[in-house]
Write a sequence for this structure.
């Protein structure tokens, strides 16, 4: 850059206050918990943001801040976006819940969308995806693929979201392989490549030849690749760079359509506070290409399961299912309710057969 | 060729001015970094340093400076006492967490009490918690001669695990649908540390200001402060003067632990609002930078804490408005410490230009 050009721009920057954004542009803000390059959770939210840009072009302006800690910093970042004229703000981590509600109170005209939480308000919607449907498909493939009958699971935090995933994967693995065992490691992080790699190695040493992960980095994939004979699944994003092996399939979060629809609603003035919980059927949860490392018959079964979940013909939690302590949860043919006692939203128990304890 | 020559005495003028020079050099180097990223460097620097103070929305950011700066200052004041005496408490982050856990736990045990004694009780519990966590490395050092740097640092990871355990167990909000995290203390009138949230005022801000004043008096007017300084600058002389190193170690680690614990309590019952797995945001480690940036002097620490807060707040604004990556802001903050330490050399050494071979 030439010095004169620098100085001119300095004069402009110092002399003039940043000119107000063209008023007809809809401004959409995104608050991310990880870096956009995490290859998982935040990466997919950023893909959603890009989908918004692509859909509306000049009519929108998107801004994002990455790696925002869940606490007062998040509140400040949201406030700052609202002050800067954002019309719609997506806060994309569970830990932003109270902050989102606080800031929303101060800016009644700004719309907020909080991912995976449960507190709604006049101008705060909540949205989440039924990832457990994807876990059912993974569980099926995992149960068929394991030779040691030991499946490792890298869990993040013991919250209902994660516990639902473990239960769903276990139930469907067990269905096709009654001898299957789950070993669960709690990493207490959503994204920490070093910790995730350690967890994966520990599980492999304990005899796991399939690893499921509820953390966002590709480190477990790399650890499995190094081990040579361990099957993995992509989490949040496709992680296709590890296909066809060790990564044999994946759960993909596809936020794009939802983000586009909600932005459109703000533009049209039809935005209203809603609670959205969509699965494979609505396209919010995608099942990544099942690779050729999976035998053709298993692949066909898994795809049939996926389609049955998508059409609503089959529910991932269909009775008879007992809780871990042996007490009855769902009677034969009964499906789990979303809310209420023992509902999916607040699930805090393991199903029968899991040999582990939920940390508390 | 450049040569370094030791000064007979550290330069006082440079000692005071190097922090400022470091800030300026950071601005220049950071500006180059931002330019290399294709952003206008002047706009970036202005967004980070000017906008939060005097920009359009300064009315919101100025109080935020206090909120962000207060825990840094409070912790750094405590650390500086030990650092001056050559006692290295690196584990303030752990003491901060334990203070928050004890304080919040003491309060939540009486939920939903509206007693006026509740908040003072939490303050005492928070301070005691941090103090006790700081006393572990202190006692181990005194009794067994362990290294307080290692012990205090390792205890941070223990505290981290306790925090996760409490967020998922004992302190978990019984009405939280099974999600981790305690009740929101900030919404609980008799337990919150907020005085006036719109002005960024909470008891932690008040405590930080009081700590600055007391530390100043202690170091300049009190024999204990003199002993601390003496032990750091001339350990042998201190021993001849009858300074009891054991008492000094207990005092410094205990006090810095208590102040870090207080910072944690004020944070958890105010800006943060709840005990949660991710509650610790690194204040205990950043405070080490603040202590050195402030030259271990109470007033210096006050200014340094506000400056650090400014780079955080301005950094976030720059990220969102200019779409700078978070990593660039972190590099920028790292540069500040790097240049400060590098320029420290000039306080003790003089740079001589010599023609090669002539020496």
């Amino acid at each position: 850059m030439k010095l004169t050009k620098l100085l001119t721009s300095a004069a402009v920057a110092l002399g003039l206050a940043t000119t107000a954004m063209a008023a007809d542009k809809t401004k959409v803000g995104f608050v991310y918990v990880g870096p956009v390059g995490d290859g998982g959770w935040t990466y997919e939210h950023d893909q959603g943001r890009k989908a918004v840009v692509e859909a509306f072009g000049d009519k929108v302006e998107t801004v994002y801040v990455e790696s925002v800690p869940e606490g007062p910093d998040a509140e400040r970042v949201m406030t700052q976006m609202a002050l800067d004229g954002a019309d719609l703000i997506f806060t994309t981590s569970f830990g932003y819940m109270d902050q989102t509600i606080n800031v929303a109170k101060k800016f009644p005209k700004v719309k907020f969308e909080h991912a995976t939480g449960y507190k709604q308000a006049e101008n705060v919607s909540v949205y989440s995806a039924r990832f457990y449907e994807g876990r059912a498909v993974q569980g099926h493939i995992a149960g068929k693929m394991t030779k040691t009958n030991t499946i490792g699971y890298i869990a993040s935090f013991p919250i209902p979201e994660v516990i639902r995933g473990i239960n769903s994967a276990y139930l469907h693995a067990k269905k096709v392989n009654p001898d299957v065992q789950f070993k669960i490691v709690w990493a207490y992080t959503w994204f920490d490549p070093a910790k995730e790699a350690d967890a994966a190695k520990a599980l492999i040493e304990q005899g796991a030849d399939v690893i499921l992960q509820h953390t966002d980095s590709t480190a477990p994939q790399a650890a499995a690749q190094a081990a040579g004979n361990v099957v993995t699944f992509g989490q949040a994003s496709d992680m296709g760079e590890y296909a066809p092996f060790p990564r044999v399939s994946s759960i993909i979060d596809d936020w794009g359509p939802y983000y586009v629809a909600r932005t459109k609603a703000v533009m049209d003035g039809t935005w209203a506070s809603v609670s959205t919980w969509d699965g494979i059927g609505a396209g919010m949860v995608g099942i990544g290409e099942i690779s050729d490392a999976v035998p053709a018959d298993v692949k066909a079964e898994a795809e049939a399961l996926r389609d049955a979940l998508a059409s609503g013909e089959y529910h991932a939690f269909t009775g008879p299912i007992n809780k871990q302590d042996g007490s009855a949860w769902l009677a034969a043919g009964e499906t789990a309710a979303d809310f209420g006692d023992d509902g999916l939203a607040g699930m805090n128990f393991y199903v029968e057969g899991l040999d582990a304890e939920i940390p508390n | 060729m450049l040569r370094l020559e030791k000064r007979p005495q550290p330069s006082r003028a440079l000692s005071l001015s190097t922090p400022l020079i470091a800030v300026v050099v950071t601005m220049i180097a950071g500006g180059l970094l931002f330019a290399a990223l294709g952003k206008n460097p002047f706009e970036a620097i202005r967004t980070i340093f000017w906008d939060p103070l005097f920009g359009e929305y300064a009315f919101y950011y100025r109080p935020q400076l206090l909120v962000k700066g207060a825990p840094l200052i409070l912790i750094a004041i405590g650390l500086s006492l030990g650092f001056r005496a050559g006692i290295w408490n690196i584990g303030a982050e752990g003491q901060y967490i334990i203070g928050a856990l004890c304080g919040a736990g003491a309060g939540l045990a009486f939920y939903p009490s509206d007693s006026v004694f509740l908040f003072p009780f939490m303050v005492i519990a928070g301070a005691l918690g941090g103090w006790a966590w700081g006393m572990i490395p202190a006692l181990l050092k005194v009794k067994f001669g362990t290294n307080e740097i290692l012990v205090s640092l390792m205890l941070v990871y223990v505290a981290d695990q306790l925090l996760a355990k409490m967020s998922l167990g004992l302190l978990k909000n019984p009405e939280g649908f099974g999600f981790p995290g305690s009740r929101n203390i900030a919404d609980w009138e008799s337990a919150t540390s907020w005085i006036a949230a719109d002005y960024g005022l909470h008891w932690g801000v008040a405590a930080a200001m009081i700590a600055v004043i007391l530390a100043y008096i202690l170091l300049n007017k009190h024999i204990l402060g003199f002993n601390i300084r003496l032990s750091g600058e001339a350990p042998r002389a201190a021993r001849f003067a009858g300074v009891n190193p054991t008492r000094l170690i207990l005092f410094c680690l205990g006090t810095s632990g208590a102040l870090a614990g207080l910072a944690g309590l004020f944070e958890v019952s105010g800006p943060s609002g709840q005990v949660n797995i991710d509650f610790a945001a690194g204040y205990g480690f950043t405070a080490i930078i603040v202590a050195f940036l402030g030259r271990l002097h109470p007033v210096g620490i006050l200014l340094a804490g506000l400056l650090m807060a400014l780079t955080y707040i301005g950094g976030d604004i720059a990220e969102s408005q200019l779409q700078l990556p978070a990593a660039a802001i972190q590099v920028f903050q790292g540069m500040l410490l790097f240049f400060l330490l590098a320029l420290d050399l000039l306080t003790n050494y003089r740079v001589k230009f010599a023609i090669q071979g002539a020496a």
